[in-house]
Amino acid sequence: MWRGAGQHYENLVCITIGTGIGGGIIVGRELYRGAHFHAGEFGVMPVGNNGESMHKIASTSGLMESCRQALALPAEEMPPADVIFERMATDVHLREAVNDWARYLSRGVYSVISMFDPGVVLIGGGISEQEKLYPLLTRHLETFEMWEALQVPIQPCQLGNQAGRLGAVWLAQQKLNRS
């Protein structure tokens, strides 16, 4: 980790929120892959009241679908995320949909924090640019038992669309350094 929001942390978790949910786990400045190379597949975690996965209800796609239903709109008329977060203040149905989504997302974030005890959780994906996301997420996290003891910073990723390319370069450098 030589660039970005996680560069000063030995241990961190990145959760990427988009069409689905993905992520990565860094332990001792090394990417943790797991025994079967599935580490960081956070999207498969059940977080819904009926066991729905993070992919289904805590992704940006899940948020858009919930908001579409709350607004009774066809999919092609869905406003972008920044408009949704702005309209939350005046639309009770939209506020409820976003609140439910944030609660599901917070369950996944809390689970990851309690499992890995990272120094920071980084949030990636387009939705990470929504400043209103972080206080909303924090409000839900504060309802969990032990949050005060487990609490870590939750921040947006800084590298945007360059993150994947820079990560590939970093992994290649790590491999060369081991050779």
Structural features, described:
The chain has about 180 residues and is of the alpha/beta class. It has one domain (about 10-160): Nucleotidyltransferase, domain 5 (2-Layer Sandwich). Helices cover about 45% and strands about 15% of the residues. It has 7 helices and 5 strands. Strand 2 and strand 3 form a beta hairpin. Helix 2 packs antiparallel against helix 4 (about 90-115). The chain starts with 11 loop residues before the first strand and ends with a helix.
State the strand order across the main sheet: 3-2-1-4-5
Distance between the termini: 19 Å
Number of domains: 1
Structure summary, number of beta strands: 5
Largest sheet: 5 strands, mixed
Helical content band: 40-55%
The structure class reads alpha/beta
Q: Please, what is the average pLDDT?
A: 92
Number of helices: 7
The Cα radius of gyration reads 17 Å
Could you say what the CATH architecture is? 2-Layer Sandwich
Low-confidence segments, given as residue ranges, are none
* Fourth-level CATH superfamily: ATPase, nucleotide binding domain
What name is given to the CATH topology?
A: Nucleotidyltransferase, domain 5
What series of H and E elements makes up the topology? Answer: EEEHHHHEHHEH
Q: Strand share of the residues? A: 5-15%
Large-scale geometry: globular
Assembly state here? single chain
Name of the level-1 CATH class: Alpha Beta
Indicate the topology:
Blueprint: E1 12-17, E2 21-27, E3 30-32, H1 54-57, H2 60-71, H3 81-87, H4 92-116, E4 120-124, H5 133-141, H6 147-150, E5 154-156, H7 163-178
Parallel strand pairs: 1-4, 4-5
Antiparallel strand pairs: 1-2, 2-3
